[in-house]
Amino acid sequence: MAHFTHSTRVLLSAVLVSVSLCAGAQSYPFQNPELSPKERALDLCGRLTLKEKVGMMMHFSKPVERLGVPVFQWWSEALHGVGRNGHATVFPITMGMAATFDTLLVERVFTAVSDEARVKHNQAHRLGTQREMYHGLSFWTPNINIFRDPRWGRGQETYGEDPYLTAVMGKSVVRGLQGPADAPYQKLLACAKHFAVHSGPEWSRHRYNAENIKLRDLYETYLYAFRALVKEAKVAEVMCAYNRFEGKPCCGSDRLLQQILREEWGFEGLVTSDCWAVDDFWKDYGHHYSENKTAATSAAVVAGTDVECGESFGSLLDGVKEGRIKEETIDRSLVRLLEARFRLGDFDDPHLNPWNRIPDDRLCCKEHADLALEAARKSIVLLRNNGILPLEKGEKVKRLKGENQNVNCKLSNCQIAVMGPNAVDSTMMWGNYNGFPLHTITLKEGIQAICPSAVFIPWKRDVQQQVEAAADAQTVIFCGGISPSLEGEEMEVKEEGFKGGDRTMIELPQTQRDILAELHKAGKRVILALCSGSAIGLVPEQQTTDAIVQAWYGGQAGGQALAEVIFGRVNPSGKLPVTFYRNIEQLPDFEDYNMEGHTYRYFRGEPLYPFGYGLSYSKFVYGKPRYADGRLSLTVCNKSQRDGTETVLVYISKVGDTDGPIRTLRAFQRVDVAAGTTAQVSVPLPPSAFEWWDTKSNAMRILSGEYIIQVGNHRLKVSR
Q1: Annotated catalytic residue, options 487, 502, 541, 546
Q2: Which residues are within 8 A (CB) of 143 and not within 5 positions of it... i.e. 6 or more apart?
Q3: Widest CA span of the chain, in angstroms?
């Protein structure tokens, strides 16, 4: 990561001033790079007409040619790679990145993403396409909503169900996107979304009212990561959500946008609406909150929404005429937008901005491809293994003669068959909000690269036909699960078990379950390679499979990573960032946002696979932990003949707090442990790890008292 010294910044400012003076362009203070972004924004705002101001407050910010103000696109996507803008490196879906429990990896990933974003922006300027969608420097990511229910289709976009994990992953994303704090210009603008109390259902998001939420749940769960990104990572943008909160649309909530965000947390950045969320204020399908468009847009800006993804803000002109909003209030929002653009260098000579000198060959480069593979490897979670994995070289056998096999042929002389709906589905690997890789390694391709003798059986939904095609196979790698075409954002799906992008059941589709059962009945050794963005109910599969490997939507290198795990070239190290429930009977009502019964922190049943679960080909044994001087110390012994990586998860609970979480994650650390050795582990537990809900002040505070620290099977009581 680049480091910019004070002398570098001074020299850059001097050069900018010199260039501007020589060009005769130093006509207005806003063109002076020696002034602060705030001073420049105030000066420019004061020179604009009301119509020009309003024209700059929608996601396509109109130019003001008389003052040399360029166009600006506020809407770009980079969920797990630059999205919707042609070729880009596609990393695993964020749920997979959360499973790595590797914050440094995530920061490296989004540093690569921001490199590619700057390259694409620079290319757009050279080609004159900067007016087109998704070519800007403002990226609406990360999604740091809490994945409280596996039925939510957009949960794949989050970093799981835990507030602490979500917060630390989110901060890594922001650091990678926005660049070093001491840089002369900000690299990109990151955006924390969706603020707040937003995690499905998709079908009711435009009218849902999140009310009667316990104040503790609000601050301890739903706002925890947002506060961290605002106060610690200095995220540039916050996106307000579609739903209502306590009766008011989130994009019109002074409680959220003024009291909490700006007054309590001191947020100085900008607020963008979710796309067409302001229309929800007044249209028939929405909240029935405002009488018309003019009333809606005025209410949104007064509450603190600064820029709209949509086209309604044009009616602010009428809002001023009707006395619904003052021009000074519009100025307040516009100055925030302009200040962010000045920090990016949007008004200065592009040749003097170091981020504009990132070479084009950083786009889809080998280094980024290797990073995508590393992330995919670390994301994979081994859920079940009766000893069949890893498959060793002895599994390799002769390939059938001929390159093309059809579903009706027998697999004579073959031991391994690859089949299932996700075996050759490359677009499934991309997840959603995706870019387009130069090449995607499918699950089939990855497996056959290591084991060329593995025979592929094309997917058809006829159970008996599929089972008969695998008659001569000893081992079947079944590439199953679901796909982003079934789960996602507000989408029409007509498959059983899915509704509007969400799920109404969490089990595998019935055809897949039936095929797995019949393969097992036929005596096959069955490995389920499971692709999904969220938890799957796998109760029958505990009997019908020999191994289950959770591969998420693994990005462009997901197929290679999966094969390397199956064949033992990579020792799996991923851990679940969500609870895998047995079925929906274990879940509260989908629209119940109170935390009781949701996620591992408040779920009192017996899950199928708990949060933090993940097997390895190594066997790790934890020594007794000790806590002193703000650190938890313990040993981790690898009692196997394989080098491995263990993630030490540290949970805390407060003695006597009957209303609080059963336990909550407050630290973690990945530890490499060589075969037959013991590693000394020291995990920081600063005072903030003991920040707890204070019932006296109704706030999160560092509280004294007795706590239980849990690591592995050990529980340690400490006093603070």
Answers
A1: 487
A2: 79, 94, 154, 157, 158, 193, 194
A3: 82
Rounded Cα gap, residues 185 and 33, in angstroms: 11
Rg (CA), the chain: 27
- Partner residues linked to 691 by β-bridges: 702
* Placement of tokens 């990016």 in the chain: 344
Rounded to whole angstroms, the Cα distance separating 171 from 232 reads: 8
Task: List the catalytic residue out of 274, 308, 348, 564.
Answer: 274
Pairing of strands 244-245, 209-210: parallel
User: Pairing mode, if any, of strands 72-73 and 60-61?
Assistant: antiparallel
Residue type, 315: S
Distance CA 257, CA 223 (A): 12
Q: d(Cα 281, Cα 271) in Å, to the nearest integer?
A: 17
Whether 22 shows a pLDDT value over 80: the answer reads no
Q: How far apart are CA 700 and CA 223, in angstroms?
A: 11
pLDDT in tens, 96-124: 999 999 999 999 999 999 999 999 999 99
Instruction: Judge contact between 232 and 171, C-beta under 8 A.
Output: yes
What is the rounded average pLDDT for all residues in the chain? Answer: 94
The answer to whether residue 662 scores a pLDDT higher than 50 is: yes
What's the DSSP call for residue 235? Answer: -
**669 has which bridge partners?**
648
Identify the band that residue 396 occupies on the pLDDT scale cut at 50, 70 and 90.
very low
Non-local CB neighbours of 685 within 8 Å, separated by 6+ positions? 627, 630, 631, 632, 650, 666, 667, 709
Separation between Cα atoms, residue 536 and residue 687, nearest integer Å: 36
Is 487 labeled as catalytic in the residue annotation?
Answer: yes
Cα 431 to Cα 232, 239, 331, 442, distances in angstroms: 29, 22, 39, 13
pTM of the model: 0.95
Q: Is a pLDDT exceeding 90 seen at residue 649?
A: yes
Domains of the chain: 6-361 (3.20.20.300), 368-586 (3.40.50.1700), 618-719 (2.60.40.10)
DSSP-derived secondary structure for 152-193: -GGGGGS--S-HHHHHHHHHHHHHHHH--TTSSS-S-B-EEE
CA angle 279–281–283, rounded 5-degree value? 60
How far is CA 447 from its chain centroid?
Answer: 27
Pairing of strands 706-711, 699-702: unpaired
Percent of the chain with pLDDT over 70: 93
pLDDT in tens, 536-582: 999 999 999 999 999 999 999 999 999 999 999 999 999 999 999 99
308 is catalytic: no
Model pLDDT, residue 26: 52
Q: What is the pLDDT of residues 321-350, one digit of tens each?
A: 999 999 999 999 999 999 999 999 999 998
Q: Which helix (DSSP H) or strand (DSSP E) does residue 702 occupy?
A: strand 699-702
Residue 396: count other Cβ atoms within 10 Å of its Cβ. 16
- Give the model's confidence band at 414: pLDDT under 50 very low, under 70 low, under 90 confident, else very high: low
For 592-618, the three-class secondary structure string (H helix, E strand, C coil) is: CCCCCCCHHHHCCCCCCECCCCCECCC
Residue 65 has pLDDT above 80, yes or no: yes
Tell me the per-residue pLDDT of 476-534, one tens digit each, with 9 for 90 and over: 999 999 999 999 999 999 999 999 999 999 999 999 999 999 999 999 999 999 999 99
